Fold:
Amino acid sequence: MPDVEAGAYHRRNFVSNAAEQITVDATVGGKALTAGTYGTNRYATITIDVADIMFTTSGAAPTASVGHHAGPTDVIHLDSNEDIVKFRAIRKTSTSATIYVTYQEIKLTA
Structure:
């Protein structure tokens, strides 16, 4: 007998609700995303311009040698509001970077 799942089937459509641009410099503890901008959004897409960064999503402070490394061709996807809240980034070298962030939610459609 085949498996049958009850319930409605929906497509997941990401709807962009807000965006921001942040300069990632040598701020001790790392730069955070802006709470007044991301609000309750659960998804974020981050691209990097100019220079490499180090980042964390645990709330721990990144340094030039501690954290996840990302550069100008990388895209960072955050999949929870908790990760957005705890995101911190710092420049890896003496050159500051710019990150561009788009915040999204899911809109379910039939």
